[in-house]
């Protein structure tokens, strides 16, 4: 997969002074966050028109893949020259994500528990795992800080903590070639699926919803894309045959989803579970193939970068750049909306207004976070100092005309 629009001749370079910032990762990440927010308010009309309704994967896969690409772009070139200092920077990022998860979980409980007892929402509390807070408060408190207790819809950040903690090891494996990194990640994915290897939960008797032993493969693929792009190459160069195959697979998966035809075109006994399984917890192969096919189509779509540079996408760009703030804010708002809609059933107009207000709050929070960090510049500009602080710098040089 090449992250350079128009294909094989554009080159990724490290920015020097003032460089144009490729908006695609930021906007796509922002769109993924918007879809996650909408999907986290179940049964609203708009949730039936997000990516999850047109194929095997959903916005979570898109977000993990983009995060891997961003990490590869931001850290791989630094890791080669300063291994330990870069590893410490990555682990600080993992610690920041950990802090965001703990804070968001505590706020979610503080918001939910009074509503549960005041409005008799004990079923809502039980369904979303909030009931452990009053059934076993001490064990729940320990579970929050050990990442073993996860409220529903607040369970993706622990996955990111593990994935970012593993980035230095993955970069070390891929320092000369991304092949060893991908092979090891695929082996971990297979072990996670076939051995039942899971991260335990406490005080409940379940396991993490997002199994990091399985999700590491998709993250590593994104990391490989970013690392290869940093080296001025494409992990998967453009091929008309491969592009047509990606389009055909995405079309098939849309038909599979929209028609409810959840059987694969092979006899059941001849379809290995690793191919047929579409589990999100253990990240079935169809989900990986679907998001990679979508990414391949999008990256090589002519005019795609210019389209995302239009002013209409600037708010989405800002939300994507401050992804952690956007996600935490959106998760809390979505959970509050779940409580509100449980007590007061809503229709299309109310859902439209509530979701729009939630998105405005997320945008304002993201803009404020970037402003405080000194990163609120024009979406098409980014200096070298910003590249040092962010995960999402992809700088493109225009292709040179070949000598004839």
Account of the protein in words:
This protein is mostly helical and about 400 residues long. It has one domain (about 10-395). It contains 17 helices and 4 strands. It has helices at about 25-40, 60-80, 85-120, 120-125, 130-135, 135-145, 155-175, 180-195, 210-230, 240-260, 275, 285-300, 305-310, 315-320, 325-345, 350-370, 385-390; strands at about 10, 20, 380-385, 395. The strands form 2 sheets. Strands 1-4 form a two-stranded antiparallel ribbon. A two-stranded antiparallel ribbon has the order 2-3. It is globular and about 60 Å long. The model is unreliable at about 5-20 and about 380-404 (pLDDT under 50). Keywords: Membrane, Transmembrane, Transmembrane helix. It comes from Martelella lutilitoris. Pfam families: OpgC_C (PF10129). InterPro entries: UCP028704_OpgC (IPR014550). This is OpgC domain-containing protein.
Task: Produce a short descriptive summary.
By secondary structure, the chain is an all-alpha fold.
């Amino acid at each position: 997969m090449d992250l350079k629009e128009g294909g094989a001749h554009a080159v990724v370079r490290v920015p020097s002074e003032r460089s144009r910032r490729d908006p695609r990762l930021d906007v796509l990440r922002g769109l993924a966050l918007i879809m996650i927010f909408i999907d986290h308010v179940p049964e609203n009309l708009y949730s039936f028109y997000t990516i999850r309704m047109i194929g095997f994967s959903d916005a979570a896969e898109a977000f993990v893949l983009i995060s891997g690409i961003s990490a590869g772009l931001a850290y791989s070139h630094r890791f080669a020259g300063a291994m330990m200092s870069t590893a410490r920077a990555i682990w600080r990022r993992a610690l920041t994500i950990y802090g965001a998860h703990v804070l968001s979980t505590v706020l979610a409980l503080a918001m939910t528990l009074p509503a549960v007892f005041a409005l008799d929402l004990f079923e809502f509390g039980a369904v979303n795992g909030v009931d452990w807070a009053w059934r076993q408060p001490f064990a729940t408190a320990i579970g929050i800080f050990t990442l073993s207790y996860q409220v529903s819809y607040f369970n993706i950040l622990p996955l990111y903590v593990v994935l970012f903690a593993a980035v230095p090891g993955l970069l070390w494996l891929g320092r000369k070639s991304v092949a060893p990194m991908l092979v090891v990640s695929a082996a971990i994915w297979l072990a996670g699926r076939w051995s039942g290897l899971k991260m335990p939960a406490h005080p409940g008797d379940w396991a993490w919803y997002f199994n990091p032993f399985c999700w590491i493969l998709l993250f590593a693929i994104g990391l490989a894309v970013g690392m290869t792009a940093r080296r001025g190459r494409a992990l998967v160069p453009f091929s008309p045959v491969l592009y047509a195959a990606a389009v055909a697979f995405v079309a098939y998966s849309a038909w599979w989803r929209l028609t409810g035809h959840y059987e694969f075109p092979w006899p059941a006994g001849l379809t290995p579970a690793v191919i047929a399984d579409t589990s999100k917890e253990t990240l079935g192969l169809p989900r990986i193939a679907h998001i990679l096919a979508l990414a391949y189509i999008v990256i090589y779509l002519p005019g795609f970068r210019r389209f995302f540079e239009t002013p209409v996408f600037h708010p989405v760009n800002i939300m994507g750049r401050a992804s952690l703030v956007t996600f935490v804010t959106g998760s809390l708002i979505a959970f509050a909306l779940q409580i509100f809609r449980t007590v007061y059933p809503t229709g299309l107009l109310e859902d439209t207004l509530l979701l729009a207000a939630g998105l405005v709050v997320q945008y304002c929070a993201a803009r404020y976070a970037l402003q405080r960090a000194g990163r609120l510049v024009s979406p098409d500009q980014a200096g070298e100092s910003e590249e040092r602080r962010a995960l999402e710098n992809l700088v493109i040089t225009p292709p040179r005309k070949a000598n004839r």
